[in-house]
Write a structure and sequence with these properties.
The structure is a homodimer. By secondary structure, chain A is mainly α. Chain A contains 9 helices and no strands. The structure holds a DNA duplex.
DNA sequence: GTCTATATATCGATAGAC
DNA sequence: GTCTATCGATATATAGAC
């Protein structure tokens, strides 16, 4: 049964999303042609336009879903803690989820962190807003820990960015068949993050 | 007096390097056209070929000099310590130099960290070798600190990458007219790095 | 929904006058 | 060393047959 263009339920559209994601993450948006994407799905370039209006719409689709998945992954991890969890438990849950995502779904992570500049102005604004929300949710955990006296940081914003960026970097070097498992890497970075928010007052 | 093509001393070649660096760092290599680069220098695209053999040669030129400057910046910082410095002083000097470079020369830093994939295979191999040398020089400092008992890390390679990547991230958010000075940011990250290599044994 | 064929634009790079 | 003019390749996107 045929589907309307760009509908989420189309099997072909999902194949296009998957192929575009890998191409964009590996070679970059500009270096990935519609012909390449179509070829890896098994169709011709013109047929892509039955599913997406433009190449940029494909980029936005995969970018938005990647950022949505990242936030949902965080929400689930925090929800598992229950309402009474303190800042240390929240920070551990956030970092574990953050690093786990960047290891397990590194193609999506690399895409979000390297191809935002290729989005249209309108879509880029939305992506930046989603990124700011994600960043701010970590900032609020750190602020709560500082307020309760459980954390010590010289600058909460620097600590926020440092924790996020070292975790994001996992998507660059992690390999599924490497020396460390996802759980091992996640546990490592939880310890590193706790070290960052436990700075000596001196 | 005219210069031979691609010679380092040419004033026009330097203008091309500067213009290309900013274009590549801001818009990416593929999205930067030879016409754009030429226009910001005040010449036509064809005239660029009197100074560089190809667009990729320009990318390699600015990439190589950026990576060379980064390593030289590190060497100077370590040399200032003198021969008797211990791992803690070496780590502080490394991180201060690393973060200082990524704040002060963020265009060059962004270029190196985002456009390596657009280099030719031969040039990319050389760039990766330079990056590995840089990464390994930090790894050796951490290994020395672990061996002497001054550092405690769960995994030396993870600690190395975490320190490098959080410092590299400064090039993304730092603004010269922002809230923090380069020296303030450098001092912050020295403390964060020392926290990373002072993990509780538990 | 796929295909072939093509419109239209822009790219890197070259030729040759000055 | 700059320019104008242009080549040849490739890009996104569209038109219309099936």
């Amino acid at each position: 049964m045929p589907q309307a263009p760009s509908k989420a339920g189309s099997a072909t559209a999902d194949e296009i999303r998957q192929a575009a994601l890998e191409q964009f993450a590996q070679s970059g948006y500009d270096a990935s042609s519609m012909r390449d994407i179509a070829a890896s799905v098994g169709i011709k370039a013109a047929s892509l336009y039955n599913h997406f209006d433009s190449k940029e719409e494909i980029l936005w689709d995969v970018t938005r879903s990647a950022m949505s998945d990242l936030a949902a992954n965080r929400d689930e991890a925090l929800a598992r803690l229950g309402p009474g969890a303190g800042p240390r438990a929240q920070l551990a849950a956030f970092v574990s989820a953050h690093v786990g995502f960047h290891a397990e779904r590194r193609h999506q992570a690399v895409l979000v962190n390297s191809q935002l500049g290729s989005l249209s102005q309108s879509h880029r604004r939305k992506a930046v807003a989603l990124r700011d929300e994600y960043e701010n949710s970590l900032r609020m955990i750190i602020d709560a820990g500082v307020a309760s006296g459980e954390f010590n940081v010289f600058d909460a914003q620097v600590a926020t960015l440092a924790i996020l960026q070292m975790g994001t970097g996992v998507s660059v070097w992690f390999r599924p068949d490497g020396r460390l498992s996802i759980d091992q890497v996640g546990a490592q970075y939880v310890k590193l993050a706790l070290a960052v928010v436990s700075q000596q007052v001196r």
